[in-house]
Amino acid sequence: xxxxxAAGLDFATVADLxxxxxxxxxxxxxxxxxxxxxxxxxxxxxxSFTAVTERRALARAxxxxxxxxxxxxxxxxxxxxxxxxxxxxxxxxxxxxxxxxNRDQPPAARDAALIERLEAAGAILVGTLNMGEYAYDFTGxxxxxxxxxxxHDIGRMTGGSSGGSGAAVGGGLVPFALGxxxxxxxxxxxxxxxxxxxxxTYGRLxxxxxxxxxxxxxxxxxxxRTARDLALAYDAMAGFDADDPxxxxxxxxxxxxxxxxxxxxxxxAVAGGYFKCRSAEACQAIDRVASALGVNRDIEIPQxxxxxxxxxxxxxxxxxxxxxxxxxxxxxxxxxxxxxxxxAGAMTPASLVVKAHKFRRWxxxxxxxxxxxxxxxxxxxxxxxxxxxxQKAFMHGDVELPVRANxxxxxxxxxxxxxxxxxxxxxxKPLPIGVQIIAAPWREDVALRLAHALEMxxxxxxxxxAL
Amino acid sequence: xxxxxxxxxxxxxxxxxxxxTLDPAWRASIAFNLHLILNHAARVDEFPLPDDAExxxxxxx
Lengths: 467, 61
Hints:
The structure holds two protein chains of two kinds.
Chain A: H1 14-23, H2 28-46, E1 49-52, H3 54-69, E2 81-85, H4 113-120, E3 124-129, E4 149-150, E5 153-157, H5 163-170, E6 176-181, H6 187-193, E7 196-199, E8 219-224, H7 227-237, E9 268-271, H8 280-293, E10 298-299, H9 304-330, H10 336-346, H11 350-370, E11 376-380, E12 393-396, E13 399-402, H12 403-406, H13 412-415, E14 421-426, E15 433-439, H14 444-456
Chain B: H1 3-18, H2 27-45
């Protein structure tokens, strides 16, 4: 397939592309040109990119092809194009973080740490991606750049805040992308766009030279079309970085070589109580995944609803603290929906925020006890499939909830204590929906092994949209 | 004082204390969001924790 014309590279995986470039069956230039062609052709509809770094990408691809011709060693991601949410610094571009205000910032002097690591492994950056303003968003809508559009139905949301990442990978423009996840911003777009997302353990991947949101909750990670591709990107990025104060200085084992171990020996349960599905599609997705893994037990994550509330107010207050000076000077330049949430966050009493941080430690201790009984917990990723763009509310059981604040109601209690999660895509018709595979801290390997096993069983997959 | 009036007063007082200039057209939305946050905060606040409970903020000496 890979030595056919550029269209044959459509929806190729990270693993296939890197192998094809390394073997000489295709060239890095050809792979990058094909990605640029897809972006040019499809992004007028998907609106996922905010900048395309064509010249830089082609120069890197040429250098990589020269290296191969010179028999120099190539990295594990040789020639694989990728894009990043526009809160990652890219040398020469202002770091927008989805905002109008940051367009006035000088261009970044250096790439984000994860871009440097991916390019050191041979991957090639092709651009930056649309996102919800300052990452305070679950919709993928943006008042300045317009909404990113769901590849499976362009009238529907991508989910946010890594909406451009979801659209670009879901639409096959790039095989993987980077996003950030403070409360669900990788897992929600992965669910709505029908792809896979990895939110690693808090402190696992460096956030250096990315624009923050709520520092004690901010994570970064990859979105891709298979578990193996997530693992390959993760392996290239993992490792201590002194430039991120919370990046953990602990050993990293590559996870891609472990995937074939599958689900053998892993104890899995379905989260009950607060996480019980309340829509037909979320229930169908959980049932399919649990059945494929032979899971027949439920487990209660204690006080999950309260944990979600605590995450909500910590996010509001930390986000407001970050933006207070901008709210004083340039309030009119914010997306109104984001501005009013941040202003309210600035008014949250400190005593209540401190209580939330105390509750956070208590909750972490209770949840970690569960991992003596099980290795992984399954939960819905989103309460529903993709809402329509502009939709303000959805039904959660018999309760109507605002979309913007609540698409992440199943993801927030998990990222609140930094657990690693893989969101897998269940390709329901007409729209896909995701399931979270939640593991103990630092056990990304467990979640990725289960995700891979589910793919092998045909229970989960990233469906190709009809674009 | 109604709950709505109390929220409006809270928004007004906070804006003054924090040096924020608010367009009157924004106030209803800010009050709605503050009400949402305070409801979440009440759910956390009602949970009993011992006096020696430590916050989970990240700090390394």
